[in-house]
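Notes from hallway chat w/ T.B., transcribed later so I don't forget. T.B. wanted the structure written out for a chain they're using in a teaching module, and asked if we could keep both sequence and structure tokens in one place. Agreed to drop them here.
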Amino acid sequence: MKYQVSPEVGISDFFFADIMTKSSHSHIHSHMEFIYVLKGCVTADIADKNYSLTEGDMAISMPYEAHGYKFGENSSAFVLACPPEYLSEYRQMLSGKVFNPPTVKYGDVNRVLIRNIIDKNFEDDLKKKALLYSTVSDFLNSSELTDSPVFEYDVYRKAIVYISENFKENITLEKTALFVGVSPEHLSRVLNSNGKRGFSEILNSLRVYEARKLLERENLPISEIAMESGFGSIRNFNRIFQKYFGCKPCDVRKLPCRLTR
């Protein structure tokens, strides 16, 4: 998921706010993203670490920080994302920094703001901005602001950015390593370290979720969707799609569920 910032559009186009109940694969974008657990339990995968969250917990992922969520049964969370430009007073302070840990409790002020935003059908940008300031203030008071890990994580981050922006093209580990400025062997080691998924798994994940989104929202032929998503062959597309979703691509349009992100 990537967000584009353009001065020709309004603030609403920059905010993402929604209720989540389903797991989200790891993704990156240029926004700061906050998740507030409303019910149940959620595992937040942020950078290369996992954090177990329960009702009343919130987590933050900084711009270009890989993150994803795994939801327990009957769990839900409020998610809010925006570019750092909308936190102008904090922007310089937060640049190149991460919160350690990236999780804290949220209190009554945030609960009221979240409820107001939901009641206004997610359209009240002033309430969203108030929630952002309140949240960052809570993190500054309860968590340590530290320098973003350098080198190994920077290699990982740059690779994820490159793959996310070019997964529809014919990219390889070697091309990605050249862009990042390390050897293919070094990049492979970084991408596979600490239980992370590796180049092929990251690439296939981005492509297969893009394909499913197109299958649900477009009426294009399946072969065209496969190519549009970056798959070189329909056979490979079918195999990977079955692995991720347990069904054939043609079955998706018959399913009642739809992706929301």
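Follow-up for T.B.: Residues 1-12, 257-261 have pLDDT under 50 and may be disordered. Might be a good example for the class.
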